[in-house]
Design brief:
InterPro entries: COR-A, NRDP1, NRDP1_C, P-loop_NTPase, WH-like_DNA-bd_sf
Pfam family, one: COR-A
Strand content: 15-25%
Keywords: Repeat
CATH architecture of one domain: 3-Layer(aba) Sandwich
Helix content: 25-40%
CATH class of one domain: Alpha Beta
Shape: globular
GO molecular function: ubiquitin protein ligase activity
Number of strands: 36
Structural class: alpha+beta
Amino acid sequence: MNRRKLRKCAGFQGETMQSDETYSLLEIQQWENIKADIDELGIKYILQLPDDQKIYPLIAKELKIPQEILKWGLDDRRKFVRSMEVGSIPVYNGRAMVIGCAHAGKTTLVKKMKGDRNLNTESTSGIEIHSHIFKLNSDESTIEACAKIDQQKGCLCLSPSILEKSEENTTETPFCGNEEVEPDRPDITKSSRTPKVDNAFSSPTTTEVALRSDIDDVIYDTDPEVNESDQPINNSTSAMDVSPQKFHAKLERKYDLNDCTASVNTDNLKMLSLLDFAGHSAYYACHHIFFSPRAVFILVVDMTKELSSVASEACKEQNLIYSDWTYADYIRYWLGSIHTYSSKEAPVILAISHAEAIGADSKKALEYFHNEICESLPKELLIHLDEKRVFAFEKESDKNIKDLKKRLASTVKSQRHWGEQVPISWTKLESALRKLQESSNIYPFGELLTCVLDTPDLGIKNEEELINALTFFHETGIILFRPKIKSTIILDVQWLVDAFKLLILDEKHVKDKHHLAQFNELNRHGLLSSKLLIKLWENDDFHQHKDILVDHMKQLDMLAEISKEKWYVPCMNKQKYSSAILKNCQVSSRLCFSFKFLPFDIYHSLVVSCINNLEMKPWEREGRICIYHTVSILICTDRIHRVLIGICYNKESTHTDYPYSIEIQTNVTNPREINSYLTSKLIKDISETITLLTQGFSSWERHFHVGYRCKLGPFGGNQEGHIIAEEDLNGSEFDCHKCSECHVVDVKSILCYWENLARWVSSLQTARVTRWGQMMSCPDREMQAVIKRALIDSGSPLHIANELMENTHERRWPSGLRTLGTRQFNRRQYENYVTKRIPGKQAVVVMSCENNHMPEDLIMEPGLVMLFAHGVE
């Protein structure tokens, strides 16, 4: 088939398909059909999106709406369409993120861009967020520093033309007026809606948090759903702590939002916020949560450093994954993070600092760019760089600063989200959020809902519409809001970052904490006690909201709860792992998830998620928990099996394409045997967790490959072997040519720990039950013995067959099947079962792993055996 290369910025039928991929004529025709449908349906097109999600960015650009909207469910998209039909407003709001190694000159460059004369700087700690620090000038050719009054404006500003249109639509806007509350509105009593005086908002107090700034960045929440009934940590050692319950009670007062008005953009301000990231490796734990497709990146590289030399300023600690990294490794890490968490085409401006040796000459800078930078990068990352976005700088000169500012302006304007449309009604809600931020950094969702519903002018009629709007503001980084938890809104994300920053004690800031007795536990092992936490936060206002802050950090996988008095902070762990700890242990093969770019944050998040959500606990041996810098050993809920989670950098040439891997290995103490049913369930839980954690990546494609190590042995031992792709293990044996000595891999010995159950279930034929009324609820022992033999003959693992046979009698059935009455009540749901026939028998197995869609009272682990007089086909 003829194929056609559509280059970036090359028009097609008057429109641009911005991609460096090759599109077939069929795909081009598909886009033309989609574009025709968009022309006909307008915004309503998002109600009938195609299955191919790769084309979503083009659809969002064509409709001029936020790309995140396309990820919403159909009901939420319907609500968005209704609000857009009332009226919409374009959003002109950009963000730049300054990244690079420590001491590269990032903060100095920011000061030069602002026009500061004083270039004295201190090393950045954490992330410094400068909201609306720049704006486009009158002809939009460059950026200039914003006055303080302009910095206070929201990202959704009404222009005079939009205001005129808004006034015309006021009487017909469905979001306005005193309309009846929707049935799904939470029960808010009359007394709770009675206006009350809120002293907390009428005048500032000494307990108000001093660190406040606006934010315009994205934080992705990758946590699984948390049970709303779970109680946050309550530490008895914290006399000053304000628990979530007390905090919510304190704010159970009505706050009048009627005087909130949208920001007015009479000068047509088009804003740019900027983030200055710390270059020390200790802070990398929270950097990735700010990366988004909406950002432009400025990568600062110190020209005086040989790219092949070790970047000692970034990590002075030995035996860490970063310890021996060169400057080239850090450049690959930053660009890899952008590629993963922002987008595959996110523009990067390369700022070559300390370029005195070449006089900041543009031509020589390009030679350095091509001969040094590009030569050290894989081809996937080169797409982020461009000759037109390369600039060299001297510390004591402003040379090339003007050109950089012009290029930054043109780059921001070229992004897909520039000028996207959102409902007009959301402008007033943003104003309300900013007003709340004046007096508090956090606010209860329930109280905000009450206030919003009592303010018709905000144009939000019910809880769902508020959640939709807050989700947008979360996705654009204005607030931090988790819809699935729906408890507290963080109005100032810088406040959360500053709180976490106090827990990250890198080499530069350790000296300020040396007097703390428990400091070494945190600094070396990542163990944070309640007593130490109070000490670290005692000079700030964070201690008043300790439980709420800790809860949010848990949900962002920044830390895990070990006990009510202790937490684990992964990025602080500097302990070295030794395979000797697995001596006298039976170990499984190693399941591997391979990545192109370092997934260290995914490794941290996976460990934290297993502790927080899968009820695992760190294994303790000789009085110490077995969690190390690159390895964590957790004990499963049965208190017998343990799971090792490790991260590897595979430098061998055979792993060039996917050099990093997160690896899973189970172990038990000898002479116990590993239960393959438990490990098969473990692979399901961990695979789902990793998939969930990578959903925040820059595309909908899977970003990892699954495989297995070719040799058996403890993680980190002498028999490491190589990773074999899962799809290659489809026979009984496999010849491994990757190892220095060729050897034959017994596939069964590798997969038996992970796939016994799955393979057996998939080998059974799907059954159709036509006579559910013939189900036998009390089979006798002789019949049970016959069915058990049939299960084993069909390939069922013995322990699974034993467990299934225990579930053949109604006494062991789940509550929805236990009595004749409950079975008759649930009769209509039987057709939803996925059933597999036991060969040669009028019996089926209903496995839990295939029936997750069924109610909990109709299924149980590992499954059910149902016997029938007849009616199984």
